[in-house]
Amino acid sequence: MRDDRARRTLAQVRNASLALLAVAAVANVLSLPSAAAPIPGGAGTDTSLPLTDSAVVVHGRGPFSSLQITVNQTEDLVNQAVSVTWKGGTPTLSGAARFAGHYLQIMQCWGEDDGSVPANPGPPPEQCVQGATDAVYGGRLSGLFTAGNNTLTRVISRSDLPTYDPDDGVLDPATRLVWRPFRAVDGTEVGVHINTSFNPVIQGGSYWLNPYFNIVTTNEIPAAATRADGTGEELFEVATGVESTGLGCGQRVQPVPGGEPTTPKCWLVIVPRGDPAVENAGLTPRPELAPVFTSPLSTRAWENRIAVPLDFSPVDSSCRLSDDQRRLAGTEHLVGAISSWQRSLCGNPHLSPFAYGVLGDANARQQVLSGVVGAPGLVAVSRPYPPGTVDPANPVVYAPLAASGTVIGFNVERNPKPGLDPAEDLLRGIRVAEINLTPRLVAKLLTQSYRAAVAIGSSVPPYDWVQDNPVHLATDPDFLQFNPEFALLNIAGGKNMAGLLMPALKSDAAQQVWEWILADPEAKAWLDGQPDAWGMRVNPVFATTAAANSAGVPFASPTPDSYPKSDPYCYQAPPLAGGTRVVPPPLCGTDWLPYTQGLRDAARLTRLADDGAKIVADPFAEVPERVYKVDGPQLLGSRAILSLTDSASAVQYGLQMARLSRAGDNGPDRSFIAPDVASLSAGVESMRPAADPAFLEPDPSVDAPEAYPLTVLTYGAIAPLAQDAAARAEYAAFVDYAAGAGQVPGRELGNLPPGYAPLAPPLRAQATLAAETIRTLQPPAASTPTTEHAAARPLDGAGFSSSGSAIRSSRSGGSTPAPSTPTAPAAAAAGEEDAIGDLGVLTPILALARNRFVLPALCLLALLSALGALEITKRPRRSLAGPAPREAGSA
Asked: Is the sign of the CA dihedral 495, 499, 501, 505 positive or negative?
């Protein structure tokens, strides 16, 4: 498969940026007039991801020969979402259960072809992750599947059936059930998966016996519905060996007798389920009267399975972990890019391995100047050092690295209210593709102001302000005016629509979110304590005026750089019934809707529709710390969950991303902007110079109609003089890579991953200049009146001081005028497919890094170049359609 990648590289360079934010490619979307009545499907129905160069089409066989399935990506995979779309299917049959027949079951497997279907090679059923979506004591999905149904299990037969074959599985003598075992990549085999003697009253023991996956970690899709027109779509999370150790995809973990472990072959397997009379034949007297109830791993169902090979990017690190590492740290907004760049950087034998750690931006800035042994030498931040905090004798160099966005990701499936609109009912279970949010609506989600955000369990705190507030976002008239279809939908368990999954870490990006909110007149008035037009009030803990704040101290003064959950209410449950009378621990806001481990974690949990909250009481607990257990993922077909994450993580996990309005755009016809390549690039263009002119910062007051409001521009910050020569050379090499090959969009390791917008040529030129400065900057010489006077002179746009004297190059010893402002962008823009191009025209300037006065000159030169070129290098918008998928074979 990898042999043809070289032939695709040029096409990827040209096209991958067009598909950067895949979920923005929304088809079949109806317009949403602000004053319109609710429109079925008005929030969009197509949440599939764009096709990639490795997209494939596969076909069904036999009774499913009309079925055509497209998988949007099958190569260069990481832990991510892929699209599975199909046409030519039979509409899903509903009856005693939502899924009675004619649906798809999707799972991930490992192993070599088992030879059972020559026309469509695939793995054996024993090596598939399946059977855990209902694997809790008592079950959870009885409304979707009938009780006692084996469709969700690995039970393939019974020993008292005439079709029983003792070689077909593992018999549980206690129940007579025959289980399809699970064979892990390390050779371990799990036979019976359920402990039939499990008793929740008795401490100890486990109900589910498979250590490789469970109800939370499984990535199987137990049922995917086919619409009335024969089409359907699902987003499937493919797992590497890190997330699914039983599969080992992308890792060298498959034992080889007498040799080194190898990487297992992995597959996406789709099992189409058909008519109950056929699927259940011979298993019940009237098979047509029952829903399909056999396991997809049963012999009959497995004969129709459709397998698609998956090729993963190697998970095993190429970095020489035993060597000294060059430490990098900072914002999580750079993690996606670093994860891609790292392998290419580590493949260079002349460089030490780079290790990146996530730190809050303020902490990261402190690390660079701390002088502590082992501190990161270069950090990634989106704000410069405050004025006056950097010693001029130890200057900091800034290098633009990546442009991304802070986004509100969501995973919402339509669950129509009964009897309101038959047309809406036809969309049952289909994901919502678009949501529009204003700064005030985001403020409501961040301030625990919806009732469901503070009504822990069934307890509503005794707050006057909360009584008239909406239960959650989807019941808020402020939200419904821009998202009218939600008036037709039920939200099951509203807490995940009353707040956001988000990290607790302080960050410059969090400060930017609050600045955007506070710059909006509507949002600021509401935070000040004024109710909105429908009477909703801010939680007083977050009021931005002393008079309205319950603590008498205004919130957001200064602007927060985190997302606090400050409401003090905690729910105290009564003692447990029974002899122990154990008193449960209190449940507070961070228990009810916990913080995530980071932005990437927030995106993944949103895809899973699982906030991980420990809020389910175990009535048989014997000690307080065991009272509350983790709640399971939300139920299939009625998931509704929101998160605050970054654009790269949202794209990786196939999340939809909310469209945001600009601060101050408060009219009835306000615009909502999706985070795509064009809007992120426009967001960078809208930024303004910070106190340090080498740094661009967001300005929420700027009128930039096409700019995504929460665009994040990440810079590398380093104090070169605090590093030794070897470290400086390697950090400079990192910046060079980030500015060059690291800005080429693509899915292969080393590229700029989807979710980022490539930097404009002048910013890349600035990074290249910064890399040379990192290498060559020299300590200042002893001060003299002449040099002090020269340092004080401002530089004009051509790199000259105000006296007009040219800056001299210490390398050449001669007088070398700096290029005028247009020169740098012109050089960098030459040839868009060559990321930087020949920067020879800039070379004389790079040598000036040896002069103590040159750093501000370089910064100003790069900035002026950037500001000029950002207005002349705007790229035209293009279609997000990807290449046509290739046929993977048919039967």
From this structure: negative
